[in-house]
Amino acid sequence: MEAATTAEATPAKAGPEEVTRARAGAATPVQPVPPEQEPEREQRLLYETAGLAGGWLAGLSLALAPLVWSQSIIVEIYSLNLLLLAGLLLALVWWREKVQSLGRLLLLALVAGLAAGHHRTAIFSLIAVAVFVLLTWWSAGKDNRPFLSWPRLLLAGGLAVLAALLPSLVLLARGGQQPASNWDNLSWSDPALFWQYLTAGEYRNLLFASTPGSELS
Question: What does pTM read for this prediction?
Answer without folding.
Answer: 0.70
